[in-house]
Amino acid sequence: MGHRSPVTGHIIHDPANISLCSSSPQCRAALYSTGPRQEHTAFYEFRTYFIRPDQNAAFLKLTEEKVHLRTAHSELLGYWSVEYGGLNQVFHIWKYDSFSQRAGVRAALSKEPQWLGEYISKAIPMLTTQDNEVTYLVPWCQIQSPPKEGGAYELASFQMKPGGPAVWGEAFQAAVYARAAPGYGHLVGVFHSEFGPLNRVHALWWYESPDHRAAIRHKAHEDARVVAAVRESVAHLQSQSNKLMFPCTFSPLK
Q1: In sequence order, which residues have a C-beta less than 8 Å from that of residue 36 and are 6 or more positions away?
Q2: Looking at residue 159, what is its pLDDT?
């Protein structure tokens, strides 16, 4: 059972229902895989822009004014300014139905005078570096919008050991659900890398505020179920990092 996401229109499944899955090897493999389901071609591009320190405010203002020129071509999931875990950065997620759709969007934008003249020509000199990563939603998670607007988002990134979901997928899913099921943060989505560093998984969480996150983290660390699940998962972990971000005024996910 589940409900439809107001952000994507997808059906959001209840983690409690995972016990309904058959115990067959085929079903367990599908359940715990975090790789892309080949029958679903939609993917999410993570883009991180590093802004010149003296241009941070100007870049955000320009983007707010001109982002409609970009969203006319493809779906923007969210756009955030990084507050902790990286200075003078913005992070945004774009959804594409296929690689051919993305190629078509990029081709169209390269020929659009208004986009090039009013935004790109002004924005590029404000940046020092750009980075991107192609990801898929894991099969056991759909985008879930926050319960209300505002708040803070945490992007937690996990570099897992080589071997893929067949090796660490079950333990990783258990660790995520150990936090999500009791309400230790609102899980927005879990993404698995396709292009960029391989064996990387990202969990996007929402909190009412940075202080709310801190309080929840302390509480979760005292929960024996969370501790046990995390202990199993970290056996497959190489490194991890995170960023705390605030949604921009024009971000669909606020």
Answers
A1: 43, 136, 192, 194
A2: 97
